[in-house]
Write a structure and sequence with these properties.
Elements (H helix, E strand, L loop, with lengths): L1 H7 L2 H65 L2 H4 L3 H11 L6 E7 L5 E4 L15 H8 L4 E7 L6 E9 L8 E8 L5 H6 L6 E6 L4 E4 L22 E3 L9 E9 L8 E8 L1 H52 L14 H42 L4 H15 L4 E7 L6 E6 L6 H5 L41 E9 L5 E9 L7 H40 L4 E5 L5 E4 L1 H7 L3 H5 L3 H4 L22 E6 L5 E13 L2 E10 L1 H10 L1
Antiparallel strand pairs: 1-2, 1-5, 3-4, 4-5, 6-7, 6-10, 8-9, 9-10, 11-12, 11-14, 13-14, 15-16, 15-19, 17-18, 18-19
Helix pairs in contact: 2-7, 7-8, 8-9, 8-11, 9-11
């Protein structure tokens, strides 16, 4: 089992699969062709079956047309037109002879009484045919109509009637001429156009009642199994009788009738399909077998040829692919394979190895850059010292932009003048020389401690690092990038120094832009943190040293969240007691304290509110309070400014 699994996953199995795939379309195409030929034979047989049943239908149509013409001639005779019914009886009796297709001929009055008949039984005077459907159809329709299966009342035989209303010469009407046909006359079609002794012909009326059938066991007057509409010319069905083995049949159908009643009869023809299908299937499967043997021989021959021609070269390619999978990009295939196609594949393999090796180096560099960026971003997020962070960025820029010396200069707020210069190992006194200068006029950097370059690396002019003369040249700021805040305010610049004129590559520009953006982020965050610290300190100082009592409360919970020293002293509560207090403890008025959302920007000076407050010693005082909405410690709050007017009110009342 293991050997079979190893073979199935190896080169030989794959080559076998390729050859099989090449053979399968040919084999499948030949099989489809053979199948098409088989179906064509079947279709020809079906068309022949339909042609036969159409021929029978034409025969029945001509037969009925002959009867129709004969009745039209009879209707025009003198004995009928003169209403000579006794003479008519004798005339009709002469027409109905032993070899005549008619069982009976007669004339029916408008009331259904038999006026004339070739047959004259004793009970004919009592007979009335007004209940016959064909009688009413003949009266109500012009032309000759064909009845359904009938059991003749006069002849007492199974018949099929053809009838038509007679127009008399004297203008009278309401008289119907009918002819009862012998059903055995329908069998003439089978004897005239029968093409197969095992086939079956069945003729039924519009009610699917059998008029004639060549199949044993089916007699006239029986109902056909199913309906005529359920039969299709292309369908097959199982045999209906028990005395034959089950088989399949081709079935075709057509309709026949007179000109005015064209669908009176349905003709069904059943042709045995099993003998034909058996012969066709034998030839079909024999052809498939021969095709299969030829395909296997072609497969074996192709297998041997591919083993001899391309086996060795494919193994070389497999080994090369394994080396690539193991991330060994040093091996080369050129010269180890034969053939033009395999040589081209080997060249592509070698180019792919070189590209993968280059991309691996790029990926390692990108991973290292991203790790260093993350480290710097962590320093910025932790608000570590700005100078250290900017020096890390300078080193990061120099590491990935070869042969350059990088420097970050910071500007004085609102000017283009340099306030600080940061670079790695600058010459003594050089950073101080830049302070106060315009950022657009950066001086050269003389005798710097230049970063090492990879052995054999060239600058933009092809100068090799081993050329010691370049080390004595001053470095000029060859290209710079602006460091701007989020609102486009200039914060500084990132400058790159080279001994020769240098235009940055796309990668160098991208890396420099990343360093400049990180520097802007660090400077912005540092200045924002400093401004917040200063703003918070100033606010605390104003709040704590205000000569009036002040407190801050949450507008949702109405709990005090801050109080200044004057409030603590004036109301007598400790700081801890204030922070656990609700306004209902301080404010005695029943009206709710002011609330609302903080106002963006400057707020209008609110009106003073006269309130009664209670101190810790339960002394009530009269105050004028002003409330200011604000954000405080991440909460929606109100700042209350309290002015005690108790003594003023008392003095006013004493003067009054």
């Amino acid at each position: 089992m293991r050997l079979l699994s190893r073979f199935a996953s190896g080169f030989h199995a794959r080559m076998f699969l390729v050859l099989s795939i090449a053979i399968i379309p040919i084999f499948a195409g030949l099989c489809v062709y053979a199948y098409h030929e088989r179906n064509e034979i079947v279709n020809v047989t079906r068309r022949s079956t339909q042609s036969y049943v159409d021929l029978v239908a034409q025969h029945e149509n001509r037969l009925l047309e002959g009867y129709e013409q004969a009745l039209a001639t009879i209707a025009a005779t003198r004995v009928v037109q003169d209403r000579d019914w006794p003479g008519c009886n004798r005339y009709f009796a002469q027409l109905v002879t032993t070899r005549s297709p008619y069982v009976n001929l007669g004339v029916i009055g408008a009331d259904g009484r038999i006026l004339c008949s070739a047959k004259q039984p004793d009970s004919i005077t009592r007979m009335n045919l007004s209940d016959r459907p064909y009688f009413h159809r003949a009266l109500n329709n012009r032309g000759f109509i064909v009845s359904d299966y009938l059991k003749g009342r006069i002849s007492n035989l199974p018949t099929l009637a053809i009838a038509s209303a007679i127009e008399m010469r004297d203008g009278g009407s309401g008289v119907v001429l009918f002819a009862a046909l012998d059903l055995r006359e329908l069998a003439r079609a089978e004897h005239n156009v029968r093409i197969n002794k095992d086939a079956h012909l069945t003729i039924v009326d519009r009610n699917d009642t059998i008029l004639f059938s060549s199949e044993r066991g089916l007699a006239p007057g029986e109902k056909l199994a199913g309906t005529v509409a359920s039969f299709d010319a292309a369908a097959t069905k199982s045999a209906r009788t028990d005395d034959r083995p089950d088989t399949k049949w081709f079935i075709a159908r057509a309709q026949a009738g007179t000109t005015s009643d064209p669908s009176a009869l349905s003709i069904l023809y059943e042709y045995p399909a099993m003998p034909l299908m058996s012969a066709v299937d034998r030839e079909f499967w024999a052809g498939i077998g021969i095709l299969l043997v030829l395909s296997l021989l072609a497969l074996v021959a192709g297998w041997k040829c591919t083993q001899a021609l391309i086996g060795r070269d494919v193994k070389c390619l497999v080994l090369a692919a394994k080396r690539l999978r193991g991330q060994d990009f040093t091996g080369r295939l050129t010269g180890k394979v034969t053939g033009r196609e395999f040589t081209e594949i080997a060249e592509q393999f070698d180019k792919m190895s070189e590209a993968l090796q280059f991309r691996e180096q790029q990926w390692e560099t990108a991973v290292r850059k991203q790790a260093e960026r993350n480290t710097i971003l962590q320093r910025v997020a932790r608000n570590q010292p700005l100078d250290e962070t900017l020096l890390k960025l300078v080193a990061f820029a120099q590491e990935h932009i070869a042969t350059s010396v990088a420097a970050i200069v910071l500007l004085r707020p609102g000017t283009r003048r340099i306030s600080q210069c940061l670079t790695v190992n600058p010459p003594a006194g050089w950073p101080e020389e830049l302070i106060g200068l315009d950022v657009a006029a950066l001086p050269p950097l003389r005798n710097p401690d230049r970063p090492d370059r990879p052995k054999g690396a060239n600058d933009a002019h092809g100068a090799n690092d081993t050329d010691a003369a370049n080390d004595d040249l001053p470095l000029e700021a060859r290209w710079t990038l602006s460091i701007d805040s989020s609102d486009a305010t200039p914060l500084g610049a990132l400058a790159f120094y080279y001994p020769h004129p240098h235009s940055p590559t796309e990668d160098e520009s991208e890396h420099g832009r990343v360093v400049a953006d990180l520097a802007a982020l660090a400077i912005d965050r540092d200045r924002t943190a400093r401004a917040l610290i200063q703003s918070e300190s100033e606010y605390r100082l104003l709040f704590e040293t205000n000569p009036h009592p002040m407190w801050i409360y949450n507008i949702d919970t109405l709990r005090v969240i801050a109080a200044n020293n004057q409030a603590i002293e004036h109301y007598g509560y400790s700081h801890a007691e204030f922070l656990h207090m609700r306004l209902s403890t301080l404010v005695m008025d029943s009206s709710p304290p002011p609330g609302g959302s903080p106002i963006n920007g400057s707020a209008a000076i609110p009106n003073l509110i006269a309130q009664t407050h209670r101190k810790k010693n339960h002394e009530d005082i009269l105050v004028e309070a002003a409330y200011f909405p604000l954000h405080f410690m991440g909460q929606e709050a109100m700042l209350a400014l309290i002015h005690d007017v108790t003594e003023q009110r008392q003095h006013s009342e004493a003067l009054q």
